[in-house]
């Protein structure tokens, strides 16, 4: 693979990383060189590298179903995972019931329930991560040490194609979820649940 092609593939892979949860990408990039022995894999290294890829892929998939909001009462940031009935909050340590009901009522919880768009983003994120992992030189040398010209061209151009396709899907099917691993958690995320919280806040400050 030429230097220009290698540079293009690395740039495309870096762009793919922007579409994924930051923590997952950092963990993958930190662990894979060690687990793959910098691409010089024996059987144990292949199993370890494959395990990292599978675990990170699952994290990317399920991260698409996580969301966050600011508590109406304490203004703390809460995280939860979307279900078919609403949002299950799992870091509400100061609640007696542990499900965030004092911060979001039942009607507001339903605004966070799983939708079709969540599955689109989940499968797109899963695909993007697998392509991103495949773009790693350590993974390539570990699993495809004797790749021919055709395979090298496919590996070089796959990140660009996956990035364009996933960006198109994310643009056509936008999501308002800001879950675990995504850095752009909006401070006013609670306003999407309902206008009741804003009205209550205005009453308290009046």
TrEMBL record:
Its main location: membrane. Keywords: Membrane, Transmembrane, Transmembrane helix. It is found in: Membrane. It is a multi-pass membrane protein. This is DUF679 domain-containing protein. Belongs to the plant DMP1 protein family. It comes from Hevea brasiliensis (Para rubber tree). The chain crosses the membrane at residues 12-35, 47-66, 116-134, 154-173. Pfam families: DUF679 (PF05078).
